[in-house]
Design brief:
350 residues; mainly beta; ten-stranded antiparallel β-sheet
Length: 350
Amino acid sequence: MNSFIRILRLSRTRLLIALLLIVSGFNMDSAAQIMMKTVAYKGWQNNLQLSNGTVELIMTLDVGPRVIRYGFVGGPNVFKEFDEQMGKSGESEWQSRGGHRLWHAPEDVKRTYALDNSPIKFEKLGDLSVRLIQPVESITGIQKEMDITLDASGTGVTIIHRLRNINLWDVELAPWALSVMAEGGVGITPLPEKIAHPGSLEPGEKPDYRGFETNQSLILWPFTDLADPRLHLGTRYITLKQDQNAKKPNKIGYTLKTGWVGYLNKGILFIKGIPYQAGRTYTDGGSNFETFTNKDFLEVESLGPVEKIPQGKAIEHTEHWWLLKDIPNDPSEAAIDANIRPKVEALIKR
């Protein structure tokens, strides 16, 4: 009898706790799905997995710093993975591997391609937040860090990219965050608002003299091909398709002030929030966003301003990620306006 009473009291206590949590807006099922754990992945035995039950991130610890996977739980990885490079480490040459990585700009054949093929350390910052710390690069004296935080619900991710100067002298660099996207999709870049030329107005239209000022920049490389059928320079968007039959790479950069870019692939939209700091100096002719594609992948790249980093100090660059699913695979401007832009702008305003 006494045992029955204890069980009854315990059940009432649990019920009361559950009711209090529900009233406070806490979802026990969601809480049970929040996890950070070490897992094996594609041949690597040491990887961190962050999951909130909706999406998951996997970060390599045997090499890096790198986010090798981002996707809906049970769904495909939105990032490219080079199968022949998975599970390996200690190579004498730089390896792309895929996923999301951190470089420093401007691009240099030696400094930028410093090896990231050895184990890294991590620090737990919260239930769904971690700091990845690379050993100091021997040829540059720079230490790379990423602070990665997954939202407790939804698909949102915040990544703070950090370059720390361990040299005995100042250096001048820009943080460069590159996401290598899986093949078969299309990159979407929104353009700033259109303003009519003040001297060519429609009847009844009032002049807006901002129409005399530049509000966007397009950055080209020696191999950029504006006639490439993968590239579409539209009225409200620029799109770049990944084509597995492409013969040559292509690349284009922008002074991006609209705050976001997207990559649409098989109904899943990857969104990257990219900051722009007016009045600051950016590398590559003023580019804070660049996109590169070849037959294997498409890169969605953001850059922070060029800064002088004193000895022992660090600079930071922040990105925000989201995923949307069940998006029609239609990259036309009308479809982007109808199916993508309102949803993205609602996410960014939160």
